[in-house]
Amino acid sequence: MRISRSRSVLLAGAVAVTLSATALPAAFAAPSSTAVISEVYGGGGNSGATLTRDFVELANSGSAAYDLSGFSVQYLPGAPSAGSLWQVSALTGSVAPGGRYLVAEAAGTGGTVALPAPDTTGTVAMSATSGTVALVSGTTPLTCKTAADCAADTRVVDLVGYGSAVVREGGGPATGASATASVARAASLADTDDNTADLTAGAPTPVNAAGQTSGGGEGPGDPGNPTEPGTVRVHDIQGLTRVSPLDGKAVTGVPGVVTAVRTTGSRGFWIQDTAPDADPRTGEGVFVYTGSTAPAVAVGDSVLVSGTVDEYYPSATTQSVTEITSPRTTVLSSGNALPAPVVLDAAAVPAAYVPSAGGGSIDALPLEPSAYALDLYESLEGTRVQIADTRVTGATTAYDEIWVTVEPKQNPTRRGGTLYSSYTDQNTGRIKVMSLDTTRPFPVGNVGDVLSGTTTGVIDYASFGGYNLQATELGTLTDHHLRREVTRRQKGGELAVATYNVENLDALDEQDKFDTLAEGVAVNLSSPDIVSLEEIQDDNGAVSDGTVGSEATLKRFTDAIVAAGGPRYAWRYVAPQDGKDGGEPGGNIRNVFLFNPHRVSFVDRAGGDATTAVAAVPTRKGVTLSVSPGRISPASEAWSDSRKPLVGEFRFHGKPVFVIGNHFTSKGGDQPLHGRYQEPSRSSETKRVRQAAEVNTFVKSLLAADKSAQVVALGDLNDFAFSPTMAALTAGKALKPLITTLPANEQYSYVYEGNSQTLDHILTSPGIRRFDYDVVHINAEFADQASDHDPQIVRLKVDGRR
Q1: How does pLDDT run across 746-760, given as a tens digit for each residue?
Q2: Which runs of consecutive H residues, i.e. helices, occur in 706-740?
Q3: Per-residue pLDDT reduced to its tens digit, 136-145
Q4: Which residues, listed in sequence order, are joined to residue 613 by a DSSP beta bridge?
Q5: Residue 125, Cβ neighbours under 10 Å: how many?
Q6: 3-class secondary structure, 640
Q7: By the 8 A CB rule, do 548 and 578 touch?
Q8: Gyration radius from the chain CA atoms
């Protein structure tokens, strides 16, 4: 099992180390009588080599089993440069007293003799003649580049430098390593902390925990180039659950036809068995991971694949991808017909999304592809599928991905998307489409367009978006001409208040971004009287030098609004403390009010700063603010490393209006909808609920002083209308969420993974009785977007008349 490995590094070989259950040495400056690396071989698969893989072997001279959980074997080139990094192979299990433990790394193209079945498999390609191998307590890569620095690192249990290695123990590295020779300790496993004295060159002699030697563990005959299928088929590898019953095991001669090849990123190819079993739960396709090596096969090749079965977890909370790693492939014939694709449509996809495990892992649950959509997609992992005439529900991204739905009648929005309306009612037909054809431009589509005709490819899984279709044949895009909305202009007696997340805007951004955002305000929002902005950064953006002001950014933005035909806006904000408000590191993100001074006035009251809390002040004429602009409870833990709400007092036609600009903490850290833990944990929600309660308390303090106070709370709340966050914000009917006043198919302002949803909100106090509310769709549904959020606007009467 691997979690979030770097997929640009190819490892080769196996590592042998002697281990003890006693305490680890503080550093290798003191010789170890327990834990040592016993043999290192970097010539596996090289020209002239007999063995097909590199290896490192471990041994345990202690009297008790030695637990390797959390340990790693790490490799560094012999003459490391400034950019050289230690490459990590994580270890699991234990090594018996007096026993051996074999770490197999990636195979080369030469050699004829396989290693014995490895106890663990890495992906590091070691040099045959020069390098350093360390046994490390931990899996975090070492950073030392000299012998002295590595000796000072207490995580290093043992270290072997060979050839001309700069990092080594004692007076010099072990000598004599080559394509045909390893360096190994004597049978006594003596360690004097001098690699030259302790290790000698000789023919490689890898031994695994079972005591097997070369050629004994990966199958009969020549496991690298079999000519007849072995006993294991793809459906045996995929099994009845999400985790292969053969995870970590070597397999030989697995037959299949190559159905797709990926030559960039995570390189490899997919094979599918042409003689499937009768069980719909056991998949017939699997990915063969070749690492940094370009696949030497073509679509239509009939192949036999030998290697190690592995469950690759893109991250700790995602599901896994079943793969064959460190492969050796025999091509039997070419130009073969491919298996017919499975048709994915509304009839094929179950209505339920995923089984529940009470918040635990679903890895071990038996698959039920007829009952759950994610079980269906998992049963088709690596298998050819086909979709046809699918509506686009998520616009083309910068990474050449587009979201479509195979269930066109499932929760459609007015403009062609798919509405996300409940934690318990997931949209099962959504799937992300990518292309394996790098020679053709990827289609640029917006929500509501159609990917017409048939699209064929294989089902894969990734950390972002989950199950996806890697297309080998891509349909054509039919443009449904989605247009950006323009809201009406407010009437003379209406106060127009808008919210807009402008996505990390700062003075270093290109003018085109300013111009597009400005057009959104001046034209699409028809120049509101007040605009509450989220994600205004300090003037030098992500540069962390203590700058907290945003004057240059706001000057450019308001100039661009004038150029787009809008009014000359003034602005107010409270500069944050450096590094205290979250967002992009160094960016000092904050909320800002723009206002048109010809239509509305701002009531300035001195004293508002980053650490001073605004308060409601009762007067004979109603309520005022203690400071304006001000911040709500900035010292509260609820706002730790997060944006503090900005409160301002405005006057429109002589009437006071209180506006609260918000940007609650993000959903970062929440488990994905498609992940291995079901139901997924929403860990970030706890903080947003506390933030919502703080705002609710402040609004109630205004209403306690004046029950008819006109309050507008708005912004990017990073949560849904049906969430506990909104329940806390509206508690006691202090605020009314306006998103729920729209027709259900219009209740969204953001599109994520093909789901149209609402993160941005405008809420009003009970004193506001007449309003006209609109979400203005100009960004979220489009491939070409200035921000990933759509703005919202409310036009309201504040004169107290019914």
Answers
A1: 999 999 999 999 999
A2: 724-729
A3: 999 999 999 9
A4: 631
A5: 24
A6: coil
A7: yes
A8: 31
